[in-house]
Amino acid sequence: xxxxxxxxxALGVHRGLRSVGTDHVxxxxxxxxxxxxxxxxxxxxxxxLPDHRHTAYNLGLLVLLGSPLAAVAMRxxxxxxxxxxxxxxxxxxxxxxxxxxxxxxxxxxTRANIGMWQRGFALAAYPWMAVVGWALxxxxxxxxxxxxx
Length: 149
Hints:
Blueprint: H1 2-19, H2 24-46, H3 66-73, H4 83-102, H5 114-125, H6 127-148
């Protein structure tokens, strides 16, 4: 179900970004990142480990491009939402750092602790979508209120 939710979220991200005036190309890129994550989740369910297709040929790693793209998209956000840019930058650094660890940098990952590292990576890789979704709802509400006044 998470994969289908990701595909639906991609449409919502695109519409939300366009509704606040984000450039079409940037909105499409962010929607594609979210959709790719949804497809990766579908593959994970359809092809259980140890099947090599479980990771959707690493398509899900595109999720790491979402937070820097979202930081660019949020640059025109209202002042009270600009803190999200800092969150997205920290999120980007954490995501890529944890990916490097997962790929063997520092030899920190072992069979005994890989689950901990995977959870840490998930905490860095996915929350940006919820934060940006929340911010877009707030931003849109502000735009609607401004137009009504």
